[in-house]
Amino acid sequence: MVRPTRRRAPATFAPLVLLALAACAKAGGPVVLGTAGKWDTDYGAMSRRGSELAVAQLNAAGGIAGDSVVLRPLDDRANGAVAAAVADSFANDRRVVAVVGHLASGAMVAAAPVYDAAGLPAVATTATSPDVTGISPWVFRVVPSDSATAIALAGFARTLGRQRAAILYDNDAYGRGLAAAFQRAYKGRIVSVDPIAPDRADFEPFVAWFKQQQVDLVFMAGTEATGIPFVRQARAAGLAADLLGSDGWVPVARDAAAAGIHLGVPFVASDPRPAAQAFVAAFKQRWGMEPDNNAALAYDAVLLVAEAVKAVGRDRARIRAWLAAGNRFEGATGTIRLGPTGDPVDKGIRMTKVVNGRLTLVGAR
Amino acid sequence: MRGLRFDSIRDRLVAGFGVLVLLLVGAGLAARGALTAMSTAIGSMLTGVQVEAELSSRLSANTARQISAATHYVDQRDAESRTQFQTLGWASHALVRQMSRQTGQSSREVALIANIDRRLADLESRYALAHRLADLGRQSEAVVEAETATPIVSQLLDDVQQLGLIKTVKGQQAAKALAEDARQRTAIMLIATALAALLGLFTVWSTVRWIGTPLRRLVAQARELASGNLDARTGGDLPDEFRALATAMNTTAEQLARVTAAAVQASDDVGRSARDLSGVSEQVAQSASHMATAMADVTGGAESQVRELQRVEEQLAGMRARAEAVLAGAEDVNALAQVIENTAADKRGEIERALTILGNVRDAVGSAAGEVQQLSGTVDDISRFVVTVGRIAEQTNLLALNAAIEAARAGVAGRGFAVVADEVRRLAEQAQAAAEDVVKLTQGVTRRVTTASRTMAAGVGSVAEIETVSRGLDEALAAIGGSAERTRHAASGLTFGALENVQAVDGAADGLQVIARMAEQHAAAAEEVSASTQEQGAACHEMTSAAAHLLENATRLRALVAQMQLRSTGEFPLRMAEQPAAGP
C-alpha cells in the first residue's frame, strides 16, 4: 500500500544503521539485507518488528552458513524520489545481497527501475499496487496484488447481500489501484467513486451524500489516516452502511468506532495455522504485543530472502533466480510461491470482522 | 613493408594490392559500423525524447481538460463533466505513472513527476469534495472548496511546464551530444582514411621502387653488353622474374666471352702452327740432302760386308769338325760310367744279403743267451729244493733217533720198531748225502752257465761290429753308384751340346748367306732412296710458302677478335700483335 508522507526527519533508526554498517565492515562478514520503508509510522514500526524478529531467529539458529544476518534499514519516507535514492544506496553497497521492502507501493514502483538497472533483488512486503506486478524481474512481493485483493473483497461484499455501494479511495497509487479493481470486480450497483485526501479529514459531505443516496456498503481503499476519521464521522452521522476496508485499514480496527467493520487482510493473528501461531507466539514474546499483517509480511519476506541466500549464497543474480524459480515457502502469512510477475501465486486473503477491537476471522478468500 | 620479404614481383603485387583492398574494406567496415552505431544512438535517443515529450504534452493537455471539467461540474453539475473529470483523472495518473517508468531520468525529473502526481491527487480530492457539496445543493461551500484547488492548479501547471522544459532541454542536449558524437566519429573517420591513404601510398611507392631499381640495373647491363663490355654483370637481391632475366643475361655475356677467348686462342694456335710448319719444312729439306749422301755410303758398306761374311763362313766349317770330335769322346765316358754304376749296384746287393744273415745270427745268439739266463734261474730253484730236502733228511734222522730211543725203552715190544727206526735213520742219511751231491752238481752247472753267458755276450758284440762295417761299405757303394750316374748324365749332356754346336754352326752358315744377299739388296735400295730424297726437298719448299700465307690470315683474325674488350680477365693477352709475321 502507498502510505502518506509526513514531513518529519526519520532519525530514529540512524544508530542502528551505523551499527549495521560497522558490522558489515569486515569483508565476507554478515549477510546484509537492505530494508526500506517509512519507519515513523505504525505500519513501518510493525514491519521493523517483524523483520527484526526474523533476523533474531535466524542468528539464534546460527545465521546463514555461519555468518550472522544484519538489516540495513533506510527510510524512504514512502516517497518515490527518496525511495529511488535509497535504492541507489543499496545497489551501490556491495555487501547488500537483497532488499526487504519497500513497504509502500509508490516507493516500490519508483525504486524498481534502480533495482532493475543495478541487478539487486527486492522483496516488497506490503506494497500491494498492481503497478508492482511484473515491473522488473528483480522485484518480488510476498503480499497479493491489490487487484487480487480487490477481487476477493468484491466477492466478499456480495456475500454481505448489499446492493448500493460507494467507493472512497485515497488518491494515491494504492487507493486508485484498489478502487479501480474493486469497481471492476463488484457485481452490484456502484453509486459513486470519490478520491479523498489524507490531510483533509472532513468527510461530512460524503457521508451526507451516502445517506442521501441510500448507500448500504462503503468500500474504502485507503489507510487509517483517512479510515479512522471516516469511520468515526460515519458512525457519528448514523450511516447504516456496512464499512469494508482492506489491509491499509488494519490500525482502524483498534479504534472504538470500528466495531463491526469488515477487513480483508493478508494476515490475521487469530489464523489457526501452526506457522502463523508460532510466529504470533514468538512475536508476542519478543515485542509484548500481537503482530499485524505488516509485521507478518516483513517477517516472511526476511525469511524468504534468507532461504534464498542459504540455497545459493550471496550472489545477487543467483538469489533473484532462486526467488523466481517458484520455490514454495511456508510463511506466517501462508504458502508463498512467487510467480513469473513477481507476485505470490494463489495466496488469497483472510476476511475478518472487528469484534471488541480485534480482527476475528470470518473466512478466507 | 620493409620487414616483409618477397621473392617475386607477382607476390609483391598481390601483397601490395591485397593491403590496399584490405585497407579499403577496413575503412568501409569502420565507416559502416560508425554509421550504424550512430543511427542506433540517434534512434534510441530520439525515441526516448519523443516519447517523453509526447507524454509530457499529453499530460499537459489532459490535466487542463480535467480541471476544466471539474470546474464545469461545480457550476453546472452535468453528468458528462463528472464522468470526464473522473476518466481524465485516471488517464492523467496513468500518464504520470508511465512517465515515472521512463528510464534514464534525472532525480529532478523523478521528483517533479512525483510532485505532479501528488498535486493532481490533491486537486482531484478537493474537486471531488466540491462536487459532492454541489450535489448536496451546498453551492457556496462547493465554490469555496473548488477555490482552494486554484493555487494547486497553478502549481501543477507550473510543474508540468517545468517538466516539459526539462524534456526540451534534454532533447537539445541529446541533439548536442549527437552532434558531438558525429563530429568525433567524422574526425576519427578522417584520420583513419588519411592513415589508410598514407599506407596505400607507401605500399605503391615501395612496390614501384622494389621493381624499378633492379630493372634499371638490368637495362644498364644490357647497354654495356651492347657496347661490347662482356664483363658487366647484374647480381644482388632481385625479384624472381628479374633474377631469371639477369641470370640469362649474365650467362649470355659469359658465353660470348668464352667464344671470343676461344677464337683468340684458335688464331694464336694457327699462327704458331704455321711458323712451326715452315721451320720443319726447311729441316726436312736439309735432312733429305744429308740422307742422299748417307745412302751412297750405305751402298759401299754393304758390299764390304758381303766379303767379311764369306770369311766368317770358312771359320765356321772348322768349328764344326772340332764339335764332332768332342761328341765322340763324350759317348765313351758315358759307357764307362754305366759299367761302374752297374758294378756298384751288384756289390750293394751282396752286402745287403750278408747284413740279413748277420741279423739272423745276432737274433739266435740273443735267444740262446736268454735261455742260459733262464737255466741259471732253474739252478737256483734246484739249490733251494736241495736245501729243503737236506732239512727234511735232518729232521727225519732226528725223528728216527728219537724212535730208536723210544723203541729201546719199549724193550722187546719195541724191537721191531727199533729196526724200522734205524731204517728210517739210514734213509735220512742217504737222502742227505743225495742232497749234498745235488748241491755239488748244480754248482758245476751254474759255473758253466755263467761262462756260456759271457761267451754269448761277446758273440753278440762281434755281430754288431760286423753289421756296422757292412753298412759303411753299403753307403760307400751307393756313393760310387750316384757318382757314376752323374758322370753318365754329364757325358750325355756333353753329347747333346756337341750336337747342338754342330747344328748351330750349320745355322750360322745359312744365316750368313742370307745376310749377304740382303746386303746386296740394301745397296740397291739405298740408291733408290737417294733419288727420292732429292724430290722431297723440292716439296718442302712449296710447303714453307703455304705456311707463310696461313700465318698472315691468323694475324688478321686475332686483330679482329681483340676488338672485344676483355678488360678484367687478362686471360688471353694480345700476343699475336707482338709476334712478327714469320715465314721464309
Q: Can you tell me the number of structural domains of chain B?
A: 2
Structural class based on helices, strands and sheet pairing of chain A:
alpha/beta
CATH architecture of the largest domain in chain B: Orthogonal Bundle
CATH superfamily descriptor of the largest domain in chain B: Methyl-accepting chemotaxis protein
Strand order of the largest sheet of chain A: 7-6-8-9-10-13-14
Low-confidence stretches of chain A: 1-27
Structural descriptors:
heterodimer; A: 365 residues; alpha/beta; Rossmann fold; 2 domains; seven-stranded mixed β-sheet; 11 helices; 14 strands; 20% strand; disordered N terminus; B: 584 residues; mainly alpha; Four Helix Bundle (Hemerythrin (Met), subunit A); Helix Hairpins; flat; disordered C terminus
Structure description:
The complex is a heterodimer of chains A (365) and B (584). Helix content of chain A is 41%, strand content 20%. Chain A has 365 residues and is α/β, with parallel strands linked by helices. Chain A contains eleven helices and 14 strands. In chain A, the strands form three sheets. A seven-stranded mixed sheet of chain A has the order 7-6-8-9-10-13-14, with helices on both faces. Chain A has a five-stranded parallel sheet with strand order 2-1-3-4-5, sandwiched between helices. Chain A has a two-stranded antiparallel sheet with strand order 11-12. In chain A, helix 3 packs parallel to helix 4 (105-118). Chain A folds into two domains: 14-144 and 272-337, 3-Layer(aba) Sandwich (Rossmann fold); 147-265, 3-Layer(aba) Sandwich (Rossmann fold). Chain B has 584 residues and is an all-alpha fold. Chain B has two domains: 9-209, Four Helix Bundle (Hemerythrin (Met), subunit A); 299-548, Orthogonal Bundle (Helix Hairpins). Chain B is 90% helix and 0% strand. In chain B, helix 1 (9-76) packs antiparallel against helix 2 and helix 1 (9-76) packs parallel to helix 3 (107-135). Chain B is flat. The two termini of chain B are 75 Å apart. The chains are: A alpha/beta (365), B mainly alpha (584). The A-B interface holds A 79-81, 84-85, 106, 109-110, 113, 117, 131, 135, 171-173, 176, 180, 192-197, 200, 202, 205-206, 208-209, 212 and B 86, 89-90, 93, 97, 100-101, 103, 107, 110-111, 113-114, 121-122, 124-126, 128-129, 131-133, 135-136, 138, 141.
